[in-house]
Design goal:
The structure is a homodimer of 211-residue chains. With 211 residues, chain A is mainly alpha-helical. Chain A has 2 domains: 46 residues, Arc Repressor Mutant, subunit A (Orthogonal Bundle); 138 residues, Orthogonal Bundle (Tetracycline Repressor, domain 2). The first copy, chain A, binds a DNA duplex (30 and 30 nucleotides) through helix 3.
DNA sequence: ATATTTTTTAACCAAACAGTTAAACTATTT
DNA sequence: AAATAGTTTAACTGTTTGGTTAAAAAATAT
């Protein structure tokens, strides 16, 4: 049916109660945050009693942490693979933009969720939550530096390039409602407009790194 | 001392109790959101008793709404002025980037706060909270179309240009902790690096719109 | 000084909430 | 079918939280 990239809960089981609870928690925590999502609401959405939450997942904090880990562990390996993969720089950038815009447009709340969590408890991330295999963009960086040295692209720090690309891919979707206001578009118009972004971002980026 | 642009509470009074309460609420709501910030915490930060909050501001909801309005009404006129001002396109873009990066780097939580609120209650914004004078970027849009027609810049929809510029200015600061992880930098290194962004974004944008 | 209004506080209240308990119900094993 | 382990529930508990009240203290007016 649809094997597009998607950051969604996919812990162990299939349709078990445990799984349904986790899915409900995942959806509500990502949308409303730790304080915004209530245990009763999670129970209702999972179609079970509140006490069951505590039977399967000891506390709200524990459940929340599991959700955070699940989100992180699905979001970062995606970046990792792309940054560390082989192939010429241009191809890599094209694939990154295509994949990442696809990913974010299907999971608009996830970046906001991750950023909020990183702000809320920065230390926890480095100590416990984060996987040991954070994407190491050095391969990508060296590749950019090489192209600069060869004169194929203009001089720029690869870190800026990475930040710029990610910003152009992610922010428009995160801030979609804001841009809707700013551009005065209807939801339909905006969706149509957003579907152009894959190509626009590519043009924008490639033009901007020309020598 | 410091007359840089700053989105901060500046409702009526100076150092009155009422003002101190509002300032405390502003700070905590922007950082922690409606559910995350507690009334007791606001009272503590303002250095007063909790009951005083309800003496000056009837309910949490009311106080929150005032904070939201204050944030919105300081963030948007800033954009408005720049989008509707006179002057050649290039100058306008330069000023916009300088001003906006300065603004956001001093108020990193504000964009996140606005976006979260827009997601939480999209209707409220259009009905009550939003000022009637939303920035109308048509002047800017027509100017871009003109430059395209003259062949001074490559063909592109002005809406994409605006979104791209805003994304490049705002997102790196909003997602600072995420980039810290991704780039493996210390807070000091990252701050140093971020200070380069004004110039980098300008180069990136101008290069990308060349014919 | 006395009265009056504004400001501030401690103590209290009711609702919402995370979490607990003990019992019942179901499915599986023996 | 009896025992056992796994699953689900209703009812309860203690804490947090938004909000109230009544009275004291401070400031202002008469």
């Amino acid at each position: 049916m649809d094997n597009s990239p998607n950051i969604s809960p996919e812990i162990p089981g299939g349709d078990s109660t445990e799984q349904r609870i986790f899915d409900a928690a995942h959806e509500l925590f990502v949308q409303k945050g730790l304080d915004g999502a209530k245990m009763q609401e999670i129970a209702d959405r999972a179609g079970i009693n509140k006490a069951l939450l505590h039977y399967y997942y000891r506390s709200k904090e524990k459940l929340f942490e599991m959700v955070v880990k699940a989100v992180i562990n699905r979001a970062f390996p995606a970046i990792r693979q792309l940054l560390e993969s082989d192939g010429p720089l241009e191809q890599k950038i094209v694939r990154f933009i295509d994949f990442y815009i696809e990913l974010i447009s299907r999971n608009t709340f996830v970046p906001l969720f991750i950023i909020t969590e990183l702000n809320r408890q920065p230390d926890r991330f480095f100590e416990t939550i984060f996987p040991k295999d954070i994407p190491r963009p050095e391969v990508f960086f060296r590749q950019v530096e090489q192209e600069v040295a060869l004169g194929n692209i203009r001089p720029l720090k690869p870190q800026h390039l990475l930040i710029n690309i990610v910003s152009l891919c992610v922010f428009p979707f995160v801030a979609k409602p804001m841009f809707r206001v700013l551009l005065g578009m209807s939801p339909q118009e905006l969706s149509q407009f957003m579907s152009e972004r894959k190509e626009e971002v590519k043009r924008f980026v490639f033009q901007s790194i020309k020598p």
